[in-house]
Each structure stands twice: as structure tokens, then as C-alpha cells.
Amino acid sequence: MKQFIFPSSVISARASLAFAAVCWCSITAVHAQTQEEFELQNGRRIPASSVQASPAGFTATLTVGTTLQTINFTAKEVVRASLREPKEVVEARILIASEKPDKALEALDKAEPGLLPYQTIPDSWWLRAAVLRMDALSVLGKSKEAAAVVSQDILSKLPPESAGQIKDFQQIIAPAGKESSEKIATLQALTDRIVDSWIGARIWLEIGNTLAAQGKMEEAVKAWLRVPVFFPAERDLAVRGTILAARGLQQIGRPQDGEKLFTDYLSDHLASPYKETIQTESAKLKPKVQTTPAAAAPKEPTETTN
Question: Quick check: 301 pLDDT over 90?
């Protein structure tokens, strides 16, 4: 049996996953304390708690001295919006990683109407919700529907950075076709210029998927492992990479290594929302115990009469 060998870079980086998880918790705590606000082109910062969506854009009511001041602005005037991730978007991430993409779509259905006013704001939660919808549909095997989530008309209205991310993601989830090697080359080229960490991690999942479809399972496992090792902060994708890698290891006759991936993951992520998913996957890797029917108990001698 050919032994699977992890790349040295993966082995050394794997040892630091626990530390990375601690750092992520610290970063999350800091982010939660960051003030939610809108930053306008004129440099003004407006607390998000004072802002409401309006038919023309947004309206903010601020207290200036002893008077109330109303400010109207449009999405195009917003340079950046530091807003907490909507709970439905968080839920969609968890559901996709837990292999419930249909439920993820239902969560996004609830979030998207409220996110629509933010559509043309750079790096908005509307953009992330759109990408997650595309991802969920691709997991369901609906690549054409996924590519059509954002129409050409909407793309033309988006900031260049947002439109670029959508176009890149369309390439990522596009079917490989007959020339899957061409898709590998396209994806690897994308890794050299992608800035968004989540999309960068998703590329490596897709590289692994494409390699696996080619029958190159060892290479696929290495690609999937890059996600939890080099993108630990993208927790939903890190767990997907871990699960896919463990399944791949089982296919090449290394279920023990796959089970160790799950053990390490659970020890590094004590409060993970994916704990139940990981435990279920881990149970699939354990060999089934062959049970034999218990031997029939000896019959008690029957009483006879002379």
C-alpha cells in the first residue's frame, strides 16, 4: 500500500492550528467590540445605530448639541460600512459546512431583502450573501443557477471590486468540463491575485474537488488540507476542507489519518458549531465491528418421571 505523505509545510503549519484558533477567538472578540458605522466619502463617520434605509438611500438622525440633525446619503457615498455579520448569513455559513445547503438557502432568503439597500456598498454583507447563495447552489449541483444569481445588469451597478469578486467566484464554481486540467490552471492563477481570504480558501477547496474528479486523490487531499492549515480564520471553509481531506484519506487507505484530523480539529475547536458534524464524519471512518449471534444458551434438562 502506498503511504500518504503530508507536505512538510502542511506538517509544520498543522502544529500551529491550536494557536491560530486562540488568535481567531481574540480577533473575533475585538471585532465584536468594533463600533458599527458608515464612513462617507467626505470623511464623516456615522454610527450605524442612527441609520435607517430609505427609498432614496439612507437617513441618519444625529444629536448635535441640543438639536437633532438629519443626514441623507446614498450607497454610492459610502466608502465603507463596518457592520456586524447578519445572523442569517452566519447561519448559512454553518449550514453549508454542515452539508445542509438547502437550509442555507432558506436562511439567505430571510437575510437578502434587508441587505438589498447595501448592494452597491463595497464589500457589503449583501455581497457575501450573494456569494454564499452561489456556493450553496453549486454544492447542490446547480452550477447554472449559481452563475445566474447575480445578473449582468446588477454586476454593472456594483463597485469594481465587488463585481470582480463575483466574476472570480463564477469561475471557481463553474463545471470543469472535459478539460479539467484547464480549470486547475485557471484556479491556480486566481490564487496568485485573490485578496479576499474567504474566496482564496474556497479556491483550494475547488482545486481539491477537481483533482479528486481526475482520480488524483492524494493531490486532492493536499489541496483540501491547505484550507484548515493556511486559512484557519475562515472556519466554515476550514471544516469543509478537513472533512473532504479525511474522506480522501479513507479512499486511499488511510482512515486512521483521517480520524486523527477530526480528533485534532475537535481538540483545537472546543466550542465549534461543527462539533456534531465532525463527530458524525468521524464515526463513518471507524471500522464496523463484526458481531456474531450469541451462542444459544444450553437448555435446562427437563424433568422426567419414571
Answer: no
User: What is the distance between the alpha carbons of residues 229 and 153, in angstroms, rounded to a whole number?
Assistant: 38
User: What is residue 181's predicted lDDT score, i.e. its pLDDT?
Assistant: 82
pLDDT digits (tens, 9 = 90+) for 111-155: 999 999 999 998 899 999 999 999 999 999 999 999 999 999 999
Task: Retrieve residue 222's grid coordinates.
Answer: 493536499
